[in-house]
Design a protein that fits this description.
alpha+beta, Beta Polymerase, domain 2, 5 strands, globular
Amino acid sequence: MDSEALVRDHTIYSCVMGSRAFGLATDTSDTDRRGVFLAPTPLFWRFEKPPTHVEGPAEEQFSWELERFCELALRANPNILECLHSPVVEYVDDTGRELLALREAFLSRRAHETFIRYAMGQHRKLEADVRQHGAPRWKHAMHLLRLLASSRDLLRTGRLTIDVGDQREPLLAVKRGEVSWSRVETWMTELVTEADESAGGSPLPAEPDRARVEDFLVRVRQASALRAGA
């Protein structure tokens, strides 16, 4: 089975991410689509395994095989966790609804390290832009601020909310280059400090519920095998 067929015929969940999910869309914003597909279990019995991810077939579309998606979510990968909380769901079947019902099982205080580590990597790229070009890529700076605020709020509340709400206009001002880089850096530092301060008393558990997620994965693999043998 080719990769595009896996996405076309076996997607269990698909959503819109990026600015359109974050409440930051403008007239020129792309529509970034992300999804999860369940490769039929018999495909894993071959020497050549199904792909862990597929780019396309549509523009700005990217999908993960369910097991890989769960692995990354258990590691508190920011991009993966946010997919589970998109307010713009385009497709979901019964298995996808089970996956969404597990959203809290993936959340843990691991997010403090992974979100901040990812943010620091993005910050270094912005600093390189400033050194080379005199200014950062303002769109990337805006999204980094959004991610840091989301991380802070997750640690404070135990809930991951990706829509920026009343921060839309301040963040879009950053995207337009209307806020100085020094002010943006100060804002970023404040958000990191607030996240650090929230981590110790966070209502999140120390670790994700790996056993619950694994039970789900085993059940859907077994069901897929039974369908293949019917």
